[in-house]
Amino acid sequence: MEPIVGIDLGTTNSEVAFVIDGHARVITDVNNGIIPSCVGIDTEGRVIVGEEARNQVVAAPDRTVLSIKRLMGTDRTVPMGGSDYRPQEISAFILKALKEMAEKNLECAVGKAVITVPAYFTDAQRHATREAGELAGLNVVRIINEPTAAALSYESANSETRKILIFDLGGGTFDVSIVKIENQVVEVLSSTGDNHLGGDDFDRKIVNRLVEYCEKDLDIDVAGDPVMTARLTRAAETAKIELSSAPFALIEEDHIGNINGKDIHLSFELSRIDFEEMIDEDLARSMDSVNKAMTDAGIPASEIDKIILVGGSTRIPAIPAMLEKKFGRPPHGEIDPDLCVALGAAIQAGREMGLENSGVLLDITPYTFGTSALSPLDGDWSPNRFVPLIRRNTKLPASRTEAFQTVCDNQQAAEINVYQGEEPNALDNVRIGTYSFDLTRAPMGSIILLNYELDINGILKMEAVEKKTGRKINAVIDNAFSGLTETELSESRQRISEMWGGDDEFTHEEAFEDETDESESSGNIIAAGVADILRQAEQKLSRAPEQDRDEMVNLMEEIRRAIENGNPEEAEQAADELDDLLFYLD
Ligand code: AMP
Fold this sequence. Notes:
It is built from 15 helices and 27 strands. The chain is α+β, with helices and mostly antiparallel strands. Among the domains are: 199-278, Actin, Chain A, domain 4 (Alpha-Beta Complex); 369-482, Substrate Binding Domain Of DNAk, Chain A, domain 1; 516-585, no CATH class.
C-alpha cells in the first residue's frame, strides 16, 4: 500500500507522522522529529533546513528565513542568500526535508501527504500550501484544519458526539477553536485568536528583565547588541522551559561585558511567580479569545465536553490552571502538545489509506503523585493538604519540582510523605513513602525544593533539597503503580478511617490536632496559597518603597506567628492583607 504521511507545517516547528500497526507515530530523527520551520543557505551555497538553519540566524540573517507560514498566500517574496523566493518555495524546502526524513525512516518512497493549516487560513493560503507540497514532490491528498487534527488525535476512536475546545499556544501564534465531532466527522464551529502571541513574546519579556538587570545592577548596556540579544533570548527560553517543571531557574551567561578590564558574568535567578506575573496580561487576553470562541460558536462553557492543549507554550503550568479555573475540570495535555496536530494528520492520512480506527499510543500516569503540607483544607488549617506534583494523565517520563517552606525558626526536620491519589485530603489517598529530612538550622520560611521523577515503568524518584545549602535526600519507590487498583484504594481509605476512630467522617480539625503533635518533633512544610504570598513578599521587599516596607514585614511576621500557633484563619487573614498590599505595590 502506498504510504500517506501526515504533516504539521507550523510557523515555528514542523513534524511528519505516520500510522504504523494501528498507531500514529511521529517520525523521529536526532532532534525528536521536531524540525524548526527555518530555511537557509550555508557558506557553501547549500540549502539547509531545520536546526542547522536556525543555528545560523544570528550570524547570517540575510541567508536565513524564519516563520514563512505568515506569508503564505501573499505575493510577497523573501530574500535569501542573494535571491528572492516565493513563500511556497521556502515551505517546499521544509516539506522536502520532512519527506526525506519519512523516506529514510519508512525505507520507501513517500509521494502523498495530508497537510494541516490553521482554521482561519483563506483559500489563497490553502492553495499556496498545496502548491508548496507539489513543489516538494508531494501529492497533497487532503488539507485539514489544525484543530481538526488535534481533535482527531484524542478522539478518533470515540463515536459519541462531542464538543471540544482546542487551546493552541505555540511559539508565535495563538488559536482557540471549538469543534464538534459527530459520526467521526469533525466540524470547526468557531476559531479565533491572536496571530502575534506566543512563547516568543514570553522569551522577549524575560530578555527585557535581563537587560534591565544588566543595566541597573551590573552597569552594562547590552540593549541593541544583536549577538547579545540572541544569547539572552536562548537563555531566556531555556529558563522559561525550566520554570514549567521547577519553581526557580538560574540564568547564567559568561562574558557579557567588560568593566575596567574585568570580565562580567550574568547570574540571575528567575522565579516562576515572577515569570507568571510578566505574562499575566497575555494570558488574560488569551482568555478573552476563549470567551469569544464560545460566543461565536453559540456554546456555553457548560456544554464543552473536553479541552485540549496544543502547542509547546501550553506546558506553562499557569495555562492549564487558568483553564481549569474557568471550566471546573483539568484540560487534556497527555498527547504531546507539540506533536498532536501531526499525529492527527497521520490518523487522517491513515483513513485516506483505508485504515480504520488508528489512534495514538500513550504512556501516561493513571494516578496523581504528590505530598502533604500545611495549608488550608476546607477552611481549616491542616498539615494533610494534598499537594500534587505529577498529575494524572501526564505523559511519562515526567519530572516536576515544587518549592515548600519550613514553618518555624530552626526547624530540625521535615517529614516528607509521598502520596498517590486524587483527594484534597492526603489521608484519603495512599501513602507510598515517608522520609525524614534533617534540616540545617535556619529561619522559618526557608525553602525546600521537592522533586518527583516518574518513569515509564512506574519507578518514582524523590529528591528533597535545602535551597540555601544544597543539602539533599533521595529515595526511589520501585513500583509506584503497584497496589493501586480502585479496590485497594477503597480498602486503604477504609483502613485509614477505621484507624482514625472507626468513623469515615473525621474532621479536618481532628486530623490537624493529631498531626500537630508529630510536627512538633519532625516539623512540617507549608505549601501553596499563603506560602506563595510570603515568597512574593520576600522577593519584593527590597524593591518596595520605604514607607511600605514596615507594613510588609509586620504582615509577614503575623503570618508566620499564626502558622506557628496553628491559627489558620489569622494566617489567611494576614496573607489576604499582604496580597492586597502587594497588588497595590505592583
Ligand atoms: P510550537 O510552536 O507549538 O512548537 O511551540 C513552541 C513554543 O513552545 C516555543 O516558544 C517554546 O519555547 C515553547 N515551549 C516548549 N516547551 C515548553 C515548556 N516546557 N514550557 C514553556 N514553553 C515551552
